[in-house]
What we know:
By secondary structure, the protein is mainly α. It has one domain (3-231). Helix content is 81%, strand content 0%. The chain contains ten helices and no strands. α5 (92-126) packs antiparallel against α6. The longest helix is centred in the middle third of the chain and has 35 residues, at 92-126. The chain starts with a helix and ends in a 5-residue tail after the last helix.
Amino acid sequence: MNSINMVWLVAQKEIKSVLRNKGLLLTGSYVGGMFGVLNVLLSGSTLAINNTLFSTALLAGVFVGYSFSRFVFLREKQEKIIETMLCTPLSLKSIWLGKVLGVTVPAYFFSLLAVSLVTMISSIMVHSLFLPSAVILIHIVVVVPVFTTAAISLMGFFQFVLGMRENKIIGYLIVLVLVPFMYPSIFGLILGDVNVVISWFEVGICSIFAVLILALTTYLSRYLSKEKIVTTIPSD
């Protein structure tokens, strides 16, 4: 079995685990719906709604990804399921990449759910079919899944190598670091324009930041080892 098949095998397992968990599905629906509905109600114009879509897609993807990654990575350490996986012919890198993909797919789905809610409610508000701008469409289709994957891969790495107590802290820290890249108003403060309208520049910054995170986690992944993971599994 080649490495791609091994990664996809793990990813399928994690996607099925997420879909079978009603609590996770409710969490994803709540987070996606909350960001979608609340954010659009705070928008006042078409340009503001485009900015809202920019933020909503990222926020939903990252926060849902954070919730799902705790289930996929930390739960398996708590229940010692990961020990069984480490004894299989699957490589450690395939397990990690498969889990990242297995979390990213459903997290991105709920991000699209939030985007759909924003679009639907916005259309009702303006009494016509609302269509996002071209830059926002590219952002949703290309940048958001990459950004979400980057966030989940970083959280997944630390959830693999750190103990349970440390993971409670590092997860929040990662989300806090990512938040400034999700809000147009923060871009505005950096650029000196509070009323900034999302353009290719802001989308490009998010893209570059996501690629840098992926590069970082790819580099860090070489330090993954079965021994480090086993030593961080909580004892009974």
